[in-house]
């Protein structure tokens, strides 16, 4: 069981879902009563329609921490479920962590709340975002800046630990910023990736296990424009503009889709020949021998999905990974103890596997948002305009 989940949150943006209204689904850990599928028991093993007070099609974004989930509707309401409850209106975005709930209100004003406050009383901290902080292009910058923890204007971000407001270095403009348990990833306007924070699990991608106090350019990916970044607990993922996946960091549960000893010893890893899984991912040696077990991958490794599918979106949980393809299919792998992979069981996988639920239901996945131990997905009916 992870010990870091109490100290960090996992922001999950669903920008692609905003392009087209869709229905939301959830699966995985719901031991605190999170609005996840049916909500029965402690876990959901297969995707189920999201259980929210309003219609699931009205959900704009989902941000899930370990013990609670924040849902933002298109009408500007944030709704909490799980260990933290409550609701508030006039919200543009929300970001959930165990230590802090951050809400971006109209104004724009940034508010930090204790999750247990139920959004009542006074926030712990308030920061008004003025035009100078946002940049001269104002609202236009917000559209390019992604979502929390990156702030409008793309020149600062919010942290679950003080100081809550953290400016980026002058000249560093971000399109997206993701926080893991101990590290951060930034995608800039040119498609370059920067990382900083702790690196003891190789999650920074610089080839060492050393920490980086300031954003450092990921040299291994220079010249390869990226379109997406995602930070897991202790692993990282990038998706290139051409649909390639690069992945690095900790592989204890197969979250890098590389052979892992823990799954082999448990006898729970899926046979490489089954379900066409041998079509994608790193393979064995030229003589056909099995690939060596990999615990840490400190450099970005290229990952192929089965059938050579192109990726467009990625999200990471504490120790699992999910990717959306250009054709709207969802692949998941890594830690599956609570059903967070969506394959109707609790098996962990060190190879990508397609979530058949959405194929069977003739649904096209538009966005995926991983909580630490669960997964949220937005999908539309295939052929819907």
Please give the count of helices. Answer: 5
Number of strands: 26
> Ranges with pLDDT <50 over ≥5 residues?
3-19, 132-145, 270-286
* β-strand amount: 35-45%
In whole angstroms, how far apart are the ends? Answer: 43 Å
Largest sheet, order of strands side by side? 2-1-26-25
Could you tell me the radius of gyration in angstroms? 19 Å
Q: Determine the mean pLDDT.
A: 85
Helix content: under 10%
Shape: globular
Largest sheet: 4 strands, antiparallel
Class by alpha and beta content = mainly beta
Structure description:
By secondary structure, this protein is mainly β. The chain has 5 helices and 26 strands. It has a 4-stranded antiparallel β-sheet with strand order 2-1-26-25. Strand 17 and strand 18 form a beta hairpin. The radius of gyration is 19 Å and the shape is globular. The termini are far apart. The model is unreliable at 3-19, 132-145 and 270-286 (pLDDT under 50).
Brief rundown of the structure:
It contains five helices and 26 strands. With 385 residues, the chain is mainly β.
SSE topology:
Layout: H1 15-19, E1 23-29, E2 43-49, E3 59-64, E4 68-73, E5 78-82, E6 86-88, E7 91-96, E8 101-105, E9 109-113, E10 125-128, H2 131-134, H3 139-144, E11 156-158, E12 165-167, E13 174-179, E14 183-188, E15 193-197, E16 212-217, E17 226-231, E18 235-240, E19 245-250, H4 261-266, E20 296-303, E21 311-316, E22 320-325, E23 330-334, E24 349-354, H5 356-360, E25 363-370, E26 374-381
Antiparallel strand pairs: 1-2, 1-26, 3-4, 4-5, 5-6, 7-8, 8-9, 9-10, 11-12, 13-14, 14-15, 15-16, 17-18, 18-19, 19-20, 21-22, 22-23, 23-24, 25-26
